[in-house]
Amino acid sequence: MSNLSPTIGFVSLGCPKNLVDSERILTELRTQGYQVVPSYDNADLVIVNTCGFIDSAVQESLEAIGEALNENGKVIVTGCLGAKEDQIRTVHPKVLEISGPHSYESVLNHVNKYVPKPEFNPYTSLIPQQGVKLTPKHYAYLKISEGCNHRCTFCIIPSLRGDMVSRNIGNVLDEAKRLADSGVRELLVIAQDTSAYGVDTKNRLGFWNGMPVKTDIQHLCEQLAKLGIWVRLHYVYPYPSVDNLIPLMAEGKILPYLDVPLQHASPTVLKSMKRPGTIEKTLERIHKWREICPDITLRSTFIVGYPGETDHDFQLLLDFLSAAQLDRVGCFTYSPIDGAMANQLPDQISEDIKQERYHQFMQLQQTISTTKLANKIGKIMPVIIDEVDDEGAIGRTMADAPEIDGVVYLNDEQSVKVGDIVNVKIEHSDEYDLWGTFVPNN
């Protein structure tokens, strides 16, 4: 390999927010002239961007570091688990350098230290304007803030990533426009708490294209809507201010989709979790949202088996699920996280009970999801195409986020291309997915 092109192996683990960090590091590496390679053995150095949120993610990260050390030997670690340097050093003392999440400058300095950047950069003219992306060309994540101001007892994100820091709204909109101009058809807006965007800046007035824009989620969405692409919101706490977003969905300006991580429905458990809001108000808000925008899709995640969760608490959760009729739901059994306050709570739940409640929860939601998807049979819906192969095409409706929700199968359909947004007549459904036929425009 030429000395003009030092090579860096890269491993990216964890959530979409971590993926965005990886994209930024990769863009900076390419800007400096490094070549990123998909294997360890030919690399001059390996970077592992870790996740440290739950025990299984920590284990996966430690295994990835070990594999990189075994295959290559020269390894730099960054990301959430990097905030726990002692834990990494205990298992892998031969790691060269360790930095925490969103430590872009430190990562580049470490790379420069062990693999000096080339004097001549043959890649500068090859770096796309939108930077290096790890998602397919037709969709991208847009991270609008770092960190979190909440102190949920089951979570350690604030200790890993700090308090919330909102990005400059002009910079966010600049990035969104670059992505749209590059061919991105769907933006997935992410943060630890998307709806709190701008709170740390007291929603100060920013500027974009010479026009004043208030730093909050509503005004951000109003500007994103002008790009003419799908805009999907994730990790939205159900603050009253979220009500202002629903008319934008009803008017077709942003996707009628809200990812609201509610976590539970029992007041006792929510209080123990230090979660905001009450379930009664949440139900009222959901009903109001559906009145304003009947097509809205609501996704949420819940935790069962949280310390102290009684049979009554769990029944309240099931009752809420029946009343709310959420479209997409994820469920996790409570898992102790090193450093989380919930580890010290009394009345820890046995694994058997956790699993029993998980299956009961998912069985109920599966019934709800099956009914909701069956109601879509016969409808013609816009679908964004994610894959096309010899067997046909696979896409998603407005109700489906990539990799976490369902898909639409278009069997034997080869006339569409990845990134197309086409009309599809829905003909069949099951618990989570749809099947349909492409409807050409007349």
Automatic annotation (TrEMBL):
SMART domains tied to this protein: Elp3 (SM00729)
A Pfam short name: TRAM_2
MTTase N-terminal domain sequence ranges: 6-116
Cofactor(s) demanded: [4Fe-4S] cluster
Keywords: 4Fe-4S, Cytoplasm, Iron, Iron-sulfur, Metal-binding, Ribonucleoprotein, Ribosomal protein, S-adenosyl-L-methionine, Transferase
Predominant place of localization: cytoplasm
InterPro entries, A to Z: Elp3/MiaA/NifB-like_rSAM, Methylthiotransferase, Methylthiotransferase_CS, Methylthiotransferase_N, Methylthiotransferase_N_sf, NA-bd_OB-fold, Ribosomal_uS12_MeSTrfase_RimO, rSAM
Catalytic activity field: L-aspartate(89)-[ribosomal protein uS12]-hydrogen + (sulfur carrier)-SH + AH2 + 2 S-adenosyl-L-methionine = 3-methylsulfanyl-L-aspartate(89)-[ribosomal protein uS12]-hydrogen + (sulfur carrier)-H + 5'-deoxyadenosine + L-methionine + A + S-adenosyl-L-homocysteine + 2 H(+)
Sequence ranges assigned to domain TRAM in this UniProt record: 374-440
GO cellular component: ribosome
Molecular function terms from GO: protein methylthiotransferase activity
Ranges of residues in domain Radical SAM core: 134-372
Cofactor binding: number and manner: Binds 2 [4Fe-4S] clusters. One cluster is coordinated with 3 cysteines and an exchangeable S-adenosyl-L-methionine.
Compartmental location: Cytoplasm
Enzyme Commission code: 2.8.4.4
Record-stated family: Belongs to the methylthiotransferase family. RimO subfamily.
Function: Catalyzes the methylthiolation of an aspartic acid residue of ribosomal protein uS12.
Protein name, UniProt field: Ribosomal protein uS12 methylthiotransferase RimO
Organism per entry: Frischella japonica
Encoding gene per record: rimO
